[in-house]
Amino acid sequence: TERKTTKPDFSVQPHELSCIKKVIGIVSGKGGVGKSLATSLLAVTMNRRGYNSAILDADITGPSIPKAFGIKEKAMGNELGLLPVKTKTGIDIMSINLLLNNETDPVVWRGPIIAGTVKQFWSDVIWNDVDYMFVDMPPGTGDVPLTVFQSLAVDGIIIVTSPQELVSMIVSKAVKMAEMMNIPILGIVENMSYFKCPDCDKEYPIFGESHIEELAKEHKIPVFAKLPIDPKLAAACDKGMIELFDGNWLDPIADKLEK
Ligand code: ADP
């Protein structure tokens, strides 16, 4: 029998009418660390810099992108393919929640079906003119993210962690997965890194001291960024107004992406 290889075959071709310049996968060791928030902020940041950005929401079992952008309408298709939905500022989005009639229905599909859906978001969606596509990956380093990485032509990875995780282990796993597939790790985002007191501006490391610098050095990850715990960010996600966020936290990573 044939041995499974971990080499990417990029077997899934994008739609013939798609034009996507760079594809960035956003990964995390587990759910709930702020991967979707970081994905949204990156797309908004690049959009503000004048690039056409897009989000492919591959987090099928926990799709939170449409809500953060306040998208109410459903995705439409024509005889050629499926069309992404545009946000208020013009970011193209595709997510399972834009296809389900009732977006509160849980998606209880098995791995292969989930991976197949993500592949279709790549092959059947007309991504018209995209400078930067951000893929909100399924969390973890299991079968589903692996299949997704093997079938989509991802140019680089950004890892999202939080200080309270057993960070180094999770980062090591993500680094190994990326190495196996020859995908460069472009940067690492530490979310919920600190809380800045609105009265005195002092920064408090609520979840413990940051390890991001050591980690970046240890794994030779070129840039890193820290996101504060910010009730305004949570509220913006909740209200579908993430495009209005105020902060330049991800600039180091955005600079790196521009190069
Ligand atoms: P993941 O995609 O890793 O599962 P999310 O990005 O959906 O995680 O974040 C989980 C929840 O935590 C969301 O409700 C989000 O608004 C909130 N959250 C994440 N990061 C922050 C932050 N830095 N400050 C405030 N709230 C945050």
Automatic annotation (TrEMBL):
Annotated keywords: ATP-binding, Hydrolase, Iron, Iron-sulfur, Metal-binding, Nucleotide-binding
List the GO biological process terms.
iron-sulfur cluster assembly
Q: For binding ATP, which residues are annotated in this chain's numbering?
A: G29, K30, G31, G32, V33, G34, K35, S36
Q: Name one Pfam family in it.
A: ParA
Q: Which CDD domains match?
A: Mrp_NBP35
Gene3D superfamilies per the record?
A: P-loop containing nucleotide triphosphate hydrolases
Question: What is a single molecular function from GO for this protein?
Answer: ATP binding
> In UniProt terms, what function does this protein have?
Binds and transfers iron-sulfur (Fe-S) clusters to target apoproteins. Can hydrolyze ATP.
Subunit details for this protein?
Answer: Homodimer.
- Please state which protein family the record places this protein in: Belongs to the Mrp/NBP35 ATP-binding proteins family.
Q: What is this protein called?
A: Iron-sulfur cluster carrier protein
- Organism of derivation: Mobilitalea sibirica
